Amino acid sequence: MTQRTQQFSLKVLTINTHKGFTALNRRFILPELRDAVRTVSADIVCLQEVLGAHEVHPLHVENWPDTSHYEFLADTMWSDFAYGRNAVYPEGHHGNAVLSRYPIARYQNLDISVGESEKRGILHCQITPPDLDHPIHVMCVHLGLKEIHRQQQLTLLSDYVNELPEGHPVVVAGDFNDWRQRANHPLKVQAGLEEIFTRATGRPARTFPVRFPVLRLDRIYVKNASASSPTALALSNWRHLSDHAPLSAEIHL
């Protein structure tokens, strides 16, 4: 890497949006969530459970946006975005999304669903800041609820990471549903991914449920990069906006 590449930094935020509703779907809060996300001033935002389209909600939900949820959240702050549709149902679909202040040169949505279980995916974006000589590979992840499914999905994730060009920086962020904390070891051994909160404090951050976080479900992993200021944003102004605490960090290349 050149000296210019080594000095480049960016801020990453990951959050499960719960389709824009509060817990138990009692209230639509996407406009409030957008305001909160903007205060973090992240360069890259990884979203899980974001609605791509819904035919029924716009008919009776006040303040429903005219655009997709990821476009509404991107607004004028993130100039580029990508969406990976995972779950499809008669009324619409939802999945993962990435918002970026830098160009997304290309992206693909990788299906990691296991059998007949709930559809899951990895949204892989190649992001190209003008100050870098090669892209940053950002993967937004949402894994399954069953341990046996997650282990297979971790292997698929590792295989995808290992296919990337050697030396390219990789950021993997999202909702891993890894309440048993069994993801770090295989991802480190199989793909060289390191979880940034574990590196800093010895364990992943507590993120769920956001009002009293106990489970360590959400993660940010890096490869060929370092990180600083890992933060779980379980603050009072976030607790009604998602059932997961958002995570943020500075990534250094």
From TrEMBL:
<dbReference type="GO" id="GO:0003824">
    <property type="term" value="F:catalytic activity"/>
</dbReference>
<feature type="domain" description="Endonuclease/exonuclease/phosphatase">
    <location>
        <begin position="33"/>
        <end position="244"/>
    </location>
</feature>
<dbReference type="InterPro" id="IPR051916">
    <property type="entry name" value="GPI-anchor_lipid_remodeler"/>
</dbReference>
<protein>
    <recommendedName>
        <fullName>Uncharacterized protein YbhP</fullName>
    </recommendedName>
</protein>
<dbReference type="GO" id="GO:0006506">
    <property type="term" value="P:GPI anchor biosynthetic process"/>
</dbReference>
<dbReference type="InterPro" id="IPR005135">
    <property type="entry name" value="Endo/exonuclease/phosphatase"/>
</dbReference>
<dbReference type="Pfam" id="PF03372">
    <property type="entry name" value="Exo_endo_phos"/>
</dbReference>
<dbReference type="GO" id="GO:0016020">
    <property type="term" value="C:membrane"/>
</dbReference>
<dbReference type="InterPro" id="IPR036691">
    <property type="entry name" value="Endo/exonu/phosph_ase_sf"/>
</dbReference>
